[in-house]
Each structure stands twice: as structure tokens, then as C-alpha cells.
Amino acid sequence: MAGSLHAAGGSTEPSPLDPPSRMICHVCQKQFSQYTCPRCNSRYCSLQCYKSHSVRCTESFMRENVVEELRHVQPDDETKRKMMDILKRLHSEEEEEDLMDEDDDESLSEESIHKILSGDNVSLNDLSSEEKKRFQRALASGELSKMIKPWDPWWLNTCARKIHLGHGGNQLVQTLGEELEDGEESSSSNEVPLGPEAPLPPIRKLISTEPSPLLTVHLVDILYSYCFTLRLYNGDWRSDPIGSSMVILSISSVLGHGGQPESVLEALSSCLEQTCSPAYRHVGGLRFGMALVDDTLSILSLGTTALICLLSDLQRLVQGAEKELRSEKGRIPRKGEIKSKLKLAQRKVYFMMCWAHEQPMEIWFSLADLVTAEKGIASVHHESKKPVNSSSNVLIEEIQ
User: Fold this and answer.
1) Tens digits of residue pLDDT in 175-187
2) Residue ranges per domain, the chain?
3) Would the CA dihedral through 118, 121, 125, 131 be positive or negative?
4) Alpha-carbon dihedral of residues 367, 226, 351, 186, nearest 10 degrees?
5) pLDDT digits (tens, 9 = 90+) for 351-400
6) 78 to 67, 75, 144, 193, 240: CA distances (angstroms)
7) How many helices and strands, by DSSP H and E, does the chain display?
């Protein structure tokens, strides 16, 4: 099960879902970095962070760039809180080391410790020269990555097996006992996402022919891509809708490349190939990809209601990217092409959601058996680089 692969908060054993090679963004320090600047090798997680970092990007990268960049980042309250947590943990670890080595002179200054313990905000400028150097070393080495609290996927939450939706596949009216206080979020990142607000229409109203029997194969591709993206963003795709959508489109053959896989093996092989590509190799490679297959199996075991909620969340993700793209005033390369891909992806996700709503539970159990059977073969195919047969036949009729 995927849950057994997830690293516990205090575990020192590396996990395929949280490998030691993952590093946090040098700019926002909130997400795991996905990209490396080709000019200075600085790690960043999104377009916004790249813009912030590139202002002071020079041909010769020096660690002082990171310090200069952090000085000009205007953190919000959540960022400040996380920074304080990191400094507290660093100090706690140093205290333990001091017990073993009385000559260690690298602990935080008394002034910095007093500020942290009193709850005051501590910025990089408040640190001493030696403290800054040590913070830089920890940031550049990826040491701070282990201090990001591991995210618990919602599909591994016990409440994911108790989802209730209306007859039309839409979310039910919230009862008084479930009402939230003003300003409180409707759900956290590890809670089951809400289903669609409106009832889903019958599939016969969307297409004039019978749906392709291979839509189950395409669903595997989409589920894997969704899990990949949420794992990469530590459950918080809302922090960067455009970036997370681009990840979805790059991993999913069905949503991003117009692919039409004809078998579960072909779908898994395509996803694993993208996961192990140079763009995402640092995330965890083949072991990470195989753990995501387990995530896919976990979701299939939850049945129709969980699948609808997942696809509804994916639709909101794409819609969020479209909205952010419309409000983006800066020049974005291939903006028109990205908008077209997002629009098409949203239509496909909605179509898949309507189709999934009408399927019996047995189909997901059968699909899970197929994924389990092909999992090992897909791994061997990837390691041996053996090509998987594909076809150009169109299997999904687009919504008119």
C-alpha cells in the first residue's frame, strides 16, 4: 500500500515519496523545488519564484545570491511562521550537538534565541554573519528540506472511505454540525476535496456515440498525474495553480500530449517515462514512480465517489490556472498555447468525471487488478527501455 511507503515525520529512512534528494525552493522556502535556473543553478518551484529570483540572477552563481534574494522576499505570515519553525529546529539540533561537543561555537546567538522564544519575527538580517553562512549552507545542501512537514494524502485518510455525494454526483448540503466558522477553510490539504457543486449530466448528453471502453486506461494516466502533482507540491497546488497545471500536462499523456494509450501497461510506461525524465529526475526517479502507482491503486480501491471528488479537484486546479493566466499581466511565453491546452484539459476532465459517475463499482476493482498485474512489467519496460506499442486511433470524442 502507498501508505507504507510514506516517510514518517521522525523517520530517518528515505522514502520513494519523499527522497533525500528533494530540495526546497530557494525563494519561497515553502515548496519542493522542481526547476533549476540554467544561469545560476538556483532551485525554484514556480514561475512566480523564478521571476523573483531572476531579478538578481548573474552569470557566476555565488551563495551570496541566495542571501540577497531572501532579503527582498516579502513573506506572508505563514512563511514567517515556517521560517521560525525551521530556525527553532536548527537550534534544537545544535543544542543536542553541543552536549556532545562543548567546543562547538556554531549555535544561534542569545539575541536570536530570545527573539524566537518570545514569538517575535526573525528575518535573515537579524542573524549574525556566522548564522547567515550556516543558513546558506543548509539551504544549498537541501538540509532544510527534511524540515518540511510530510504531507498526508487525502486518499490515505480514513474519511476517504466515507464520502457521500448526491444522486447526481454533486456535493451534499452541509449539515449544521459540519458548518465552519467565518473565514475558516472548507478543507485542509489532507482532507477529501469537495465534489462538483452541480449535478453531473448523463454522458449521453455529451457525446452521440458510446464511450470508448478504453476510458479506464485513460483514467489510470490521469490519476497517476494527479498524484504526482500533489506529491510534488506537498498537497498545496493552490500556491501555484499555473505551475501545478503545467506539471499535470507534462506528466499526463491524455491531458497534455493528446495521447491515446490503449493498455494499462502503455499508460503506466508513459507516466514512468515522464517521471524519470531529466525535468523530474531529482524528485525520486523510478522508485518514486512506482510508489505513485500504489497511490493510484489506493484511489481505485475507494470507488466512484472518491474518483469524482478527485476529478472535481483536478478540474478546480485547471480552472484556477486559467483564472490566474487571465489575470497575469506579464509576458508569458506561449501563453495562447497554454490557454488552449488548459481549456481542452478541463473539458476532458469534466467528461471523465461524468463518465465515472455512471460506472459500477466492479469496474474499479477490475481496473485495480489490471494495474497491479502490469505494475511490475511497466517497471521492467522502463529499465530496459523496451518500447510499448501505441496507436493513433482517437478513443475519446471531444465535447462539442
Assistant:
1) 444 444 433 344 4
2) 23-147, 154-169+192-384
3) positive
4) 120
5) 999 999 999 999 999 999 999 999 888 877 666 665 555 443 333 333 33
6) 20, 8, 17, 22, 15
7) 13, 2
Start-to-end Cα distance in the chain:
40
Geometric angle at alpha carbon 28, from 27 and 30, rounded to 5°: 135
CA distance 147 to 44: 17
**Rounded mean pLDDT, 117-131:** 68
303, pLDDT greater than 60 = yes
CA 48 – CA 239 distance, rounded (Å):
10
If you compute the radius of gyration of the chain from its CA atoms, what whole number of angstroms results? Answer: 23
Q: Determine the distance from the C-alpha atom of residue 16 to the mean position of all C-alpha atoms in its chain, rounded to a whole number.
A: 14
**What is the rounded CA–CA span in Å between residue 375 and residue 292?**
11
| Beta carbons within 8 Å of 327's beta carbon, 6+ residues apart | none
Burial class (CB in 10 A: 0-12, 13-18, 19+), 321: buried
